[in-house]
Amino acid sequence: MDMNERIRKIRMDNGLSQDQFADKLGVSRQAVSKWESGQNTPDISNIIRICDLFGTSCDYLIRGISCDSVADPDVADEKKQTGKFNSKKYFLYTGAGLAGILIWCFVPLICGFWKGYELEHFGQAFTDSTEYIWRMPVLPISILGSLCIILAAAGFALTAFRIRKKNI
């Protein structure tokens, strides 16, 4: 698709006639007609105005390249390999890692509450709160936090390894 076709597509996607499009840009209808037929190209100020008014990038309008295809080399590489970028797995890895970190942040609080509970109900407790990490119900919570962090680290490592392997 050439620039003249992209200009026409932008105009048509916004449901504008050549007159309306020209009015928005402050040019004549004949100028728009020449741009769309390929007889002439808009100057840089009109290209910038088209991009600003219709929310597209200059790269797309001039070269036909979408702006997200060149932003991040890893993302661009994955798009090249699979045809699309699967952001769901990155959100999964990030979410798992954050969940694990949050869980581990709450372990000392849980240990303190459990120690207070034992003191109140049984009159005795361990002097070191870390002893509670190995007791129920803190142990399953600790294991869950560790598994979340391991899942995130493994997911990111496998993704980086796959991208590096494809580049070799």
TrEMBL record:
<protein>
    <submittedName>
        <fullName>Helix-turn-helix domain-containing protein</fullName>
    </submittedName>
</protein>
<feature type="domain" description="HTH cro/C1-type">
    <location>
        <begin position="7"/>
        <end position="61"/>
    </location>
</feature>
<keyword id="KW-0472">Membrane</keyword>
<keyword id="KW-1133">Transmembrane helix</keyword>
<dbReference type="Pfam" id="PF01381">
    <property type="entry name" value="HTH_3"/>
</dbReference>
<dbReference type="InterPro" id="IPR001387">
    <property type="entry name" value="Cro/C1-type_HTH"/>
</dbReference>
<feature type="transmembrane region" description="Helical">
    <location>
        <begin position="90"/>
        <end position="117"/>
    </location>
</feature>
<dbReference type="InterPro" id="IPR010982">
    <property type="entry name" value="Lambda_DNA-bd_dom_sf"/>
</dbReference>
<keyword id="KW-0812">Transmembrane</keyword>
<keyword id="KW-0238">DNA-binding</keyword>
<feature type="transmembrane region" description="Helical">
    <location>
        <begin position="137"/>
        <end position="161"/>
    </location>
</feature>
